[in-house]
Amino acid sequence: MVLAIYGRVLSAHHANPVMGDLLIYGASGFTGKMLVEEARRRELRPILAGRTADKLAALAGAGNLQQRVFALEDPRAIERALDGVSVVLNAAGPFAATAGPLAAACIRRGVHYLDITGEATVIDALAKRDADAKAAGVMVMPSVGFDVVPSDCLAVHVSRRAARVTSLHIGISGLELLSRGSAKTIIAMLDKPVLARRNGRLEKFPPASLERSFDFGSGPRKSIAVTWGDVASAYFSTGVGDVTAYFEATAAVRVHNGMARMFGWAIPYTPWQPFLEAMTAFLPEGPSPGARHARKAVIVVEAETDGRVVARSRLSTPEAYSFTAESGVAVARRVMGGDLQPGFQTAGRVFGPDFVLGLSGVRREDLT
Q1: Whole-angstrom Cα distance, residue 92 to residue 98?
Q2: What is the 8-class DSSP label of residue 148?
Q3: Under 8 Å between Cβ of 108 and 312
Q4: Residues 308, 120, 118, CA angle at the centre, nearest 5°?
Q5: Spatial distance between the Cα atoms of 357 and 157, rounded to a whole number of angstroms
Q6: pLDDT tens-digit profile of 91-117?
């Protein structure tokens, strides 16, 4: 049974600093490099890790940092690579392939595990490792970037503003920029139904079958339900059993949902998915600094009691990749400082709803 936490977290946090290094896996990827840069800016010297030696060597050499090259097919190789490490921050997607083996090795070695996944099924799978993590004194906290720190903290904030909340609706705007890795994850989801939480369980819905309007700051905007990490994480953070996540219905979102609705069923039986994945090689690694600086993201969370909106709040942040770099490193630093709880956890539950307000450029307002 999930413990709904509306006040202080009931079990005590660790108070002592965690001894050992931070290891960033997937350090040579687009977001991984941003995390490394932010870590160095915060006077950390992370160990850079991944499966491609030459890419890591160039990055490690530029910063005079350690590197460790290992794939995730060999559990013993992972465990050896965790010598002297206290916290792992996994930035290597798709996380459906990387989170399981890396988190399992961390639990066996007594190393705290963090990642930046937005994949709801990955979050739900990691939640099932709660007992093992507690027994090992290890914290397993997925989704410490834009997926899902701002929306998770806002969900906790909104759920505490009203009594007897029965459902949460989470609207997100401003995610037009994509890295090559994010594009691959989206393509992999084309043949998948949309997931939403109902009565505490993840349920499947046809693409574009759930719609809602949110005011992201310029009046109501049509939004379409998507599979987003919050449909998994918000349940553990708030105890609310019905959670649906939506993206503003931009042209790109409508095209994605139209393709999924019309052709998703055929993708496993055709060469289209491998073709689309191959085409991502021609995309830029990620959005430029100028493009990131010009954008922001907006999140709205609405809490309902028996179908009636009882609380509504809005949060604005820098664009998602810039936010992820700062948030991921901020969480890692807190864990290395001893601010943690063993077991499966979420940022909003452990650090509280105001954690996000300490990050650059974040603003929150209560609307209802």
Answers
A1: 7
A2: B
A3: no
A4: 105
A5: 11
A6: 999 899 999 999 999 999 999 999 999
